[in-house]
Design a protein that fits this description.
Blueprint lengths: L2 E5 L3 H13 L3 E5 L2 H10 L4 E5 L1 E2 L2 E2 H11 L4 E6 L4 H9 L4 E4 L4 H39 L3 H15 L4 E8 L2 E8 L3 H14 L6 E5 L3 E10 L2 E10 L8 H27 L8 E2 H18 L3 E8 L2 H8 L1 H18 L5 E6 L2 E6 L4 H16 L15 E8 L6 H17 L5 E3 L4 H6 L1
Parallel strand pairs: 1-2, 1-3, 3-6, 6-7, 13-15, 17-18
Antiparallel strand pairs: 4-5, 8-9, 8-12, 10-11, 11-12, 14-16, 14-17, 15-16
Helix pairs in contact: 2-3, 5-6, 5-8, 6-8, 10-11, 11-12
Length: about 450
């Protein structure tokens, strides 16, 4: 039933108790002092230790403390001829499961061992349940997070806690390939070296091993949900295992759910910032992006510019051809604007027939050239030609730059808008540079 170490300096007591224990189905190792007991504990695994409290050159209390410090899961039963309360209390407080006074009846000894082993089993079961609960909570936490950095931190913490490893790297998989979300216990250079090899391992998205001189053995566990790959984790280990830890597979499944949810949230957020008609960004996006752009420009000391554009006499199109044609014209103007700017720039339908173009890291002089490109492209185009129509329209464009004309997002929009109207008053189909804002005039 159990492996028991019996420690007693009395050979007669050892023989008697040994026979009782073996008769109860236990495997017994007998030693006569604490030093021999320490040696036996180091050489073999035991479920329980039965020790006399009085031992030569030592005592059972020291052995008890030694066992609880180094072999916490081993149950200890103390037997002694001392029928006193104090040593019994000290033994129990030091971790003894039972305290028996000699002479010990066979039934009492076997019953004490049975109770100690039952307690040990319950404690191990509770520890297993706690680990399982912690694992379930970690998985649930990952699958419910909808912020990328928080998901990365939670995933790294969970994998490092439940799968012993030297280091961990959490990654996302998408149209652009593999993107590292976070790492723990790995240098940036090591993570960068692993990245292409992880990508190659994911050609067949099953748990796999890679090996190199820098990181040693690395287990790559894909994060899959409904047969689709969303990312995964790479765990560097001291040696290759003959299996994939079930905890790693469990957490990877919940990481996949978390990454899938991130994608869904991003889609919904993207829809919230898109204009329904033109599929350009909307004014809500501009309100979010401009403060961030101002902060970034201040920290990098790089300029940026805004173009505020309004179609000239657009009301005439609606009055003459109807609002459906007017809407189709707005969509085609959106395509023209997108074709005139870089991928890093943002084109916004501000409202009605007004558009705003955010030109990142671009000063006023360069913005004027882009504005002229846009003005000419609109003025020279035959709109709705595919529908058999030949609509002609022009646009007036106002320009304001940070920090040349204004140093806040509100002033930039206001000055670009004012410059656009100044262009309309000057004859339409024009580009107008903003005047200096109030704050800059005051500084000047």
């Amino acid at each position: 039933m159990a492996r028991v170490l019996l420690v007693d300096d009395d050979p007669v007591a050892r023989a008697v108790y040994g026979d009782v224990l073996e008769g109860g189905g236990h495997r017994v190792t007998q030693v006569g002092d604490a030093d021999a007991a320490r040696t036996a504990l180091g050489d073999a695994t035991f479920d329980a230790v039965i020790t006399d409290l009085l031992l030569p050159q030592s005592d059972g209390m020291e052995l008890l403390r030694h066992i609880k410090e180094r072999y916490a899961s081993v149950e200890v039963i103390v037997i002694t001829a001392l029928d006193k309360v104090d040593p019994a209390v000290r033994a129990i407080k030091s971790g003894a499961a039972e305290y028996l006074v000699k002479p010990v009846a066979p039934e009492a000894l076997l019953h004490a061992v049975s109770r100690a082993l039952t307690t040990r089993s319950l404690l191990e079961e509770n520890a297993t349940l706690r680990r399982a609960l912690q694992l379930a909570e970690a998985g649930q936490r990952m699958s419910s997070i909808i912020e990328r950095n928080s998901l990365s931190s939670a995933a790294l913490a969970a994998f490092r806690q439940h799968v012993p490893s030297l280091g961990a790297l959490v990654f996302e998989w998408g149209r652009q390939g593999l993107k590292v979300l976070g790492r723990d216990g790995l240098e940036a250079s090591a993570a960068e070296q692993l990245r292409p090899r992880i990508g190659a391992a994911l050609v067949d998205p099953i748990p796999s091993w890679i090996h190199d001189e820098v990181c040693g053995w690395t287990l790559v566990v894909p994060a899959m949900d409904e047969g689709e790959l969303f990312g995964g984790v790479a765990l560097t280990l001291a040696a290759r295992l003959d299996h994939t830890p079930p905890e790693a597979s469990y957490l990877a499944q919940h990481l996949a759910i978390g990454l899938r949810n991130l994608g869904r949230v991003a889609q919904f957020e993207g829809l919230a910032f898109l204009d329904d008609l033109t599929h350009l960004y909307n004014a809500r996006y501009l309100q979010m992006a401009l403060p961030r752009e101002v902060q970034n420009a201040r920290s990098t000391r790089q300029p940026f510019s805004l173009l505020f554009l309004d179609l000239d006499r657009f009301k005439t199109v609606n009055d003459t051809h109807g609002h459906l044609v007017g809407s189709q014209l707005l969509v085609e103007v959106a395509h023209v604007l997108k074709s005139c700017v870089r991928d890093q720039d943002a084109v916004v339908r501000y409202g009605g027939d007004e558009y705003v173009v955010l030109l990142r890291q671009m000063d006023a002089a360069s913005a004027q050239r882009i504005a002229e490109r846009i003005r000419a492209a609109i003025a020279n185009r035959s709109f709705l030609a595919k529908d058999g129509m030949d609509l002609r329209i022009s646009a007036s464009v106002g320009i304001a730059s940070f920090p040349e004309h204004a140093i806040t997002e509100q002033e930039l929009i206001l000055l670009a808008d004012q410059a656009m109207y100044e262009g309309k008053r000057g004859g339409r189909n024009r580009i107008q540079l903003a005047a200096l804002g109030p704050a800059l005039k005051a500084e000047g």
